[in-house]
Amino acid sequence: QVQLVESGGGLVQAGGSLRLSCAASGRTSSNYNMGWFRQAPGKEREFVAAINWIGTGTGYADSVKGRFTIARDNAKNTVYLQMNSLKPEDAAVYYCASARARVAGWLKSLRDYDYWGQGTQVTVSS
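^ that's the sequence the OP posted. Answer follows.
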């Protein structure tokens, strides 16, 4: 079993920044790929960013590329999502996820992930 706990969400003005954290416990999460997803009201959960198990490979949704950065600290079993230049359309509940694989690339399908956090709310005011 893996427990994932997100933190760092909140209310920010458009153009502002937030850093989300995801602390993992249980299975050694540093051995697995990780990802961030988000879900806005009335919409499906969508891919935001992903990172491979050693932190050398990252991938992003086109909508956040150049503004968001995913990183991990395996010594702390923590994954981060730095979000800059936030837009109202970035508002959503953000979920951290742990994949069932350890690959050199990055994984963007929900089906690749078997453990999920409870989510943290990000609200962006215009």
